[in-house]
Amino acid sequence: MLRSPVRGTACVARPVWLAALMATFHLATCESDAAGPKFYADDPLLEEPDTQDAGAVQPWEITPLYNGIINTFSRPGDKTQNVRAQNVNTLDEVPDSSWYTNRIGSRPIATEDVAKGPDTCDGPGPGPWTVISAEDDGLTPKIRIRDSDGRAWHLRFDAQGYPAMATGTQVVVTKLIWALGYNVPESHIASLRPEDLVVGRDAVLTVISGRTRPMKTQDIGFVLRTAPRDRDGAYRVVASQALPGRALGGFRFYGTRPDDPNDVIPHEHRRELRGYRVFAAWLDLVDSPAIDTVDVLVSESGRSVVRHYLVHFDTALGSGALGPREHWEGNEYMFEGLGPIKRDLVSFGLRVEPWRAVPVYESRTIGRLQLGNEEWNPEAWVPRVPNPAFLRTRPDDKFWAALKLAAVTDDMIRAVVKTGQFGDPKSEDMLAKALIDRRDAIGRAYLTAINPVVRPRLDASAVLKFSNAAVDTGLAPASESYRVRWYRFDNATGASTLLGEAEGADPTFEPPVELSAEPGVFVKIEICAVHPRYTWWQSPAAAYFRSTTGGWQLVGFERIPE
Amino acid sequence: MGCLCLMTCDAGLAQETRAAIHARKQSEKAMSLAPSRRGKAEKWVNLARGMVYQLEPRGLYPYLDSAYPGGNITAGLGYRGLYGDTGSYDIRGLWSVENYRMIEASLKLPEIARGRLTSVIHAKHLHADKVAFYGIGNDSPENERTNYKYAPEGIGLTETLAPVRWLSAGGSIAFTHFDVGGNLFSSRDAPAGLHTDPDYLIGSVFAQVDTRRSPGYTQTGTLFRAEWFHYDERTHTKLDFRRVDVEANQFIPVLRGNQIIALRAMASFTSVEDGDRVPFFLMPMLGGGSYLRGFGDFRFRDRHRLLFSAEYRWTPSKFMDMALSYDAGMVASRSSDFRLDGFHDCVGVGARFHTPSAVLLRIDLAYSVEGPRIIFSSRSAF
């Protein structure tokens, strides 16, 4: 039996007198606690501004182990349950900010644009690359270079035995995450020949022990010793352009940065960080608690502000960076608590988690992919360690993310997968199919979980039109009917006065005759869908319009009214 | 209505715009900025990080291991430093409640040939004066235990060539002086090597195939290792011998590591020229926490040894395994003496607490005809 996680007032047909009584009651309650306008003149805010100079922000380091322990054994962040995302505007959307830029799903974007992603060039320029620094951790080298055009790049390599896996995954995921709206560094597959490297005068080498010393030319071979080499003697690398500005360390998925004056919304209550759970599940980004984030201090409009980036996506899809993704990753936290231990201590291993039996596809180029994604349950997905923002994700956050994801077409996915240059057509097909199937599974799970009405609009004649995201994406059969209820809305007091209601199979409704289009007038329209399977769609969403000289302007939308 | 900072109904403030409300919050925070500081807990976690992950620690570190079997509860300290880019030195000592003392030092030279060739110089001194001796042979009685002093000290060099990660070969040369004594064996003939304090030049060569994820802990992979030793006694002429150790381990994950079948087979054989004998303290042995767990340390010893172990492990947590174990082993003076009905065996149940790459604590309860034994160890049995 299907269940919705959302409870709300059913948008069932009611006598007008009852609706009027309820509206009066609503009026009374609103009057009691609202003395100011519900909508301001600049609503809906399309940009979250950074108004203060953040020049005093100092770098910090988030230790992965400590971060993992804190997130595993405590619940950092706001203890209040079921808090609505605090950075959404009155349209229930995320404004552009130093965290997020609306791209796919918000504006037309071509397949080629998605495949291009954040790229502004074709990668490091030709000619000698000057080594700025290098790091040898004994596993895979990391080299920072400056190309002949003066741009700085981070070079990362594949692991031995897994050509293209980590580097290709990094490129593919970077482009998809960019399309979904996040700040990411541009990344390119490139070819490195040792003879093209010139050790810079001030270059430093960090060796496996953590010690840093001046780097010498003969160190190049030493650093590259752990990297797989192509037959032609070159090394395949992923080159990620160095981020502009001063690096400040990562950001946490809870709280705020104490020294950033513009960071006023707890990260666990930022919708784009909550919704990142859906995208992380889609892409199996299991390393997503904090360690793959970077803040940088940049100058914008004459003031210093902190921009927030997501980086390092080589542990995603089928890749575990140094080898295929572990079977348990995405299915279980690294530490599941004492419950499973107590339960399994004397089970002799006879209790088997379902994921242990799910078939997988494995290859050296893309790693290990779970098969049967048509039946995949995104709600069961978890990162390696709990993520405070993910844990606070509500159905409206997931709906927001799923709607963005629904705008990613099959062609876009195939085009982006090709940019990974895995050199393995069969595996690329498997990867694209997995992403398509998982996207659809996310849509089925989250676009149907709450009232899926989207894009409400009033034309010049105040005729209401809207869409149904679940139906329009083909993830749910059409609704039997829609019901709408029109209210005159007093923006100063929050009071609503019922004007009329209607029901019909077509998502187009004539306005009630009493509706005034005088500029400054607000109208509230409750919209619900009647569907035999998704009964919770009858919980109404509320759209608010303001009459202007140019017509009706949508100023508010509440998918889950408070 | 929803309540983001950007749209909170800040009714009483009568703000004119949403942006102004947001700007006011940022302005208020700008008046009370605080520096980002690392808390004490985070500092402690970082200090412990190297230990937890069994990364190679630097500086002073607690060293928890066994000084020598039978030493009982042991604690110690180590100090590790860097030598070049990839080399290191390590000095560590252990002291047990049985007054067993061990100090060892090693110098790992920087890698050569892109990391394929490694060289380690090592030195060790051990003093254990209550080492169990039950006599020689597969039928040595349990109630005739006596103790002897075992105090070797030596220095050596090991070279390892690893053309690929899973394949390595190498050799070692070491000079070791053994101080062995005690008031022993009233009812037996004095075994070879007692009170001889021999000096040995020990050479060995080995080859190894190792596809385990980590030597310290694994759920999958194979280990096959064969090592040949030549013990050249430098002061007495009748204690030269050769020894071959062969070990094969196989780890088979079932249902992606829900269960693990771990199998081990190992054999040790010694050989001597006419007139030479193998000193009793260098004979292959059985018993103790890793070799025939249901029997005491050094319970059986003789010229040759066979040992088979199997464990059925299951994984209640990614940091904890449970295991049912079975060991069967036998020693013999001639290889032709091995027979199925001569094997001693034991069963056990245990728990292992581990990181992805190393066992931190192993607790086994093993049971044999000689009764139960509890084993605490900081290493996997195999």
Give the quaternary arrangement of the chains.
heterodimer
Give helix and strand order of chain B, one letter per element, not per position.
HHEEEEEEEEEEEEEEEEEE
What's the pLDDT, averaged over the residues of chain A?
91
Largest sheet of chain A: 7 strands, mixed
* Number of continuous helical runs of chain B: 2
Secondary-structure-derived class of chain B:
mainly beta
Number of DSSP strand runs of chain A = 20
Envelope shape of chain B: globular
Estimated share of beta-strand residues of chain B: over 45%
N-to-C CA distance of chain B: 62 Å
Placed side by side, the strands forming the largest sheet of chain A appear as 4-7-3-2-1-5-6
Helix content of chain B: under 10%
What does this protein look like?
The complex is a heterodimer of chains A (562) and B (382). By secondary structure, chain A is α+β, with helices and mostly antiparallel strands. Chain A has 12 helices and 20 strands. Chain A has helices spanning 16-33, 64-73, 111-116, 165-179, 219-224, 271-283, 338-344, 388-391, 395-406, 410-419, 425-447, 469-472; strands at residues 129-136, 141-146, 152-157, 187-192, 197-206, 212-214, 235-241, 246-249, 293-300, 303-310, 360-363, 367-370, 453-458, 464-468, 481-489, 496-504, 508-509, 522-530, 541-548, 551-558. In chain A, strand 15 (481-489) and strand 16 form a beta hairpin. The relative contact order of chain A is 0.16. In chain B, 7% of the residues lie in helices and 51% in strands. With 382 residues, chain B is mainly β. The N and C termini of chain B lie far apart (62 Å). Classes of the chains: A alpha+beta (562), B mainly beta (382). Chains A and B meet through helix 2 and helix 7 of A and helix 1, helix 2, strand 14 and strand 15 of B.
